[in-house]
Amino acid sequence: MAHTSSRTTIVFIIVALVCAFVPAFSVVEAEAKSLWGTCLLKISPKCALDIIGVVFENLTITDACCHDLVQEGKMCHNTLIKYIAEKPHLVAHETEYLTKSDALWNHCVSISQTA
């Protein structure tokens, strides 16, 4: 049962990412589109999904993805997490997700500083 829930969540996340990046599915202001385009160039899709998994699924992240996250930048990280956390079925726990997002950022910065 938990496995099905995880698959459903992963599918939702992928759909949310597609909707975020395909203008036909999402109305996004020009400034936000530019930021998303800039952020997407700095991080691999696998690491983006790993980051989302840490914040929304309590998964773990590799040191390599932590380095990518720090390279991506705090503004890109915050934009991605806030966009997903504001979805109707997640918004009730938005504060929790943003707290986890900050904890992930701090963890990754400490990992990057020791390398």
Automatic annotation (TrEMBL):
InterPro entries, per database record: Prolamin-like
Organism for this UniProt entry: Brassica oleracea var. oleracea
Lineage: superkingdom: Eukaryota
Presence of the UniProt keyword Transmembrane in the record: no
Pfam families reported in the protein's UniProt record: Prolamin_like
Keywords: Signal
Stretches assigned to the Prolamin-like domain: 38-109
Signal peptide residues on this chain, from the entry's feature table: 1-20
Signal among keywords: yes
UniProt protein name: Prolamin-like domain-containing protein
